[in-house]
Amino acid sequence: MTEFTSDVKTIFHNDEVVFHVLSDLSKLELIKDQIPADKIRDFAFDSDSCSFRVDPVGEVKFRIVDREPNKLVKFKSENLPFEVFLWIQLVQKAEKDTRMKITLRADLNPFIKGMVSKPLQEGLEKIADMIAVLPYDRI
To answer: Which of 37, 59, 80, 82 has the fewest CB atoms within 10 Å distance of its CB?
Structure first.
């Protein structure tokens, strides 16, 4: 498995509020208009999964497979030619100061790894940046 990790991001909300939003994907309804349509299309979700189309990959689906209250939300990919796991880890440092890191583990063969490593790392950072600035108090 190849592992990618985001930089640690600061979220200016407490871990309980952040976890409440990130562990229920149906809450994405409130912010779906903020997702760039030129990057992600056909975005759909329910409380436990989300799917979207990304060129040139095609449809990607992630399902929540584990939740640890206020600490962790773990996802597993579906509809991909290789297995992908993604963890969102939360640690509260102080009131309204939660640190978040995203880890992605993918079962990549050496040929694919060379082609997708840089885009995966960049995409992971963009996702982490977006998650860090969500309006958690309004979701």
So the answer is: 37
